[in-house]
Design a protein that fits this description.
206 residues, eight-stranded antiparallel beta sheet
């Protein structure tokens, strides 16, 4: 009888190193709400330049891992590539950095900062409805950190309202990804481990 | 010139009380990937008996709040009501309890434990692909808590694999919601504040 293989993520078993701590990751699921969703997803993925991130697609989601700016650039390109003027679509994205259970492999970090996709997407604009939630892990003062991030959204004019379990934003796609970059930079430098959940949607029905 | 209204969630400003701490909530977004998504979402919402939860729907999501068992019963009914044999659909659900910034209102707690929807959905079965992530907030030992929850999925035979930033499950819809109830019960009694992210999908393309 074979024994069950259980998981363990405790720090004593951790593979995490200083190098691992620099890896930003994003796992996302794209949901175009139309009959043609498969070709929209596959076409969008195909047109992202992923040469500067580690990438893997499974049946439910795709993950990009690497330097913060390149992961964000790839996710932004994916979302903009998938946009169709008349299709309601949502992207559920989980950004994360610093998990004690993270492993060194499956990432590219040895890259310059020249963005692979930005030039082809920087002039594309459309409005996005968004909900965000920030989870600083392992930090007792986490409820003091979250308002800093929300208040920056207020300063940038993209805050819509606070609600149970999330904050709503309304922004042009360019402003939204600029804000996502701020959050990941701020959290990546102030927190040992965080998760930033972002759900963005376009072309909402009346 | 009007001053900006900033947010604050620090414990000194908290509205949280012992009663508030008993409120379980779930914010979810349903994404049927077909042209007919609006009627599927609206029909599913309409056929949930929400008499035992507080409920609010906005442009991006719906939130149910109340006693754990009634919130789970309503979310389960929503998902099962929305299921169509040939439609690929995902549900992104955020379960949470214990936020220090939570407020007492907008919830029903003074209810018995008789489930409003279970009788009409308990014999419906279909397979679900699922990814989960647990975030225990404000607890330094959080990486010791997460494996307990994942290992219970292994014990129940619904664990598929571990991956970056999530764990994949494969289960019949009844087993999955039974497991979600275990996680919310376990976390609700062992942690002061947690967030449990669940994305479930049905009828995945080949």
């Amino acid at each position: 009888m074979s024994e069950k293989k259980y998981v363990s993520y405790s720090s004593s078993n951790s593979c995490s190193t200083d190098l691992t701590k620099q890896i930003t990751g994003c796992r996302f699921s794209l949901s175009p709400m139309c009959d043609d969703y498969i070709s929209i997803i596959l076409n969008a993925l195909k047109h992202v330049d992923t040469s500067k991130v580690w990438s893997n697609t499974d049946t439910l989601s795709t993950v990009y891992r690497g330097k913060r700016v390149h992961v964000e650039d790839a996710v932004k390109a994916l979302f903009i590539n998938a946009y169709k003027k008349d299709v309601h679509m949502s992207l559920e994205a989980t950004f994360s950095k610093g998990s004690p259970g993270d492993t060194e492999g499956e990432s590219y970090l040895a890259e310059d900062d020249l963005l692979a996709n930005e030039l082809s997407i920087k002039d594309i604009h459309f409005p996005v409805e968004c909900k965000i939630a920030l989870y600083p892990l392992g930090d007792g003062n986490y409820m003091d950190i979250i308002p800093n991030v929300v208040n920056t959204a207020i300063d940038r004019g993209i805050y819509k309202e606070s609600a149970h379990y999330c904050t709503f934003l309304q922004a042009d796609v360019q402003s939204l990804f600029s804000y996502i970059d701020y959050v990941n930079e701020y959290c990546g430098s102030h927190l040992s481990h965080y998760v930033f959940e972002v759900t963005m949607a376009v072309n909402l029905p009346e």
